[in-house]
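Final report, closing paragraph on structural work. Over the funding period we assembled a curated collection of sequence-structure pairs, and we close with a single example.
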Amino acid sequence: MITHILLAIGLVMVVEGLVFALAPSRLDELVKALEQIPFETRRMLGLACVAGGVVLVWLAKGAFSAG
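Its predicted structure, as stored:
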């Protein structure tokens, strides 16, 4: 179980690190654009991302690893 948690954290760090390494100026633009989005919309986007992530983990653990 701890192996899976460490793997997930590591993958998130890789993806997040790529954004900072490859496009730091675009990140500044993204932050400024996010400031323009209403608070509740940002919350709903975050919840949608969490739900999508849960579905992807569920698929990876269940549907694709069964065979």
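The helical segments are 2-22, 24-36, 39-63. The first helix runs from residue 2 to 22. We thank the funder for supporting this effort.
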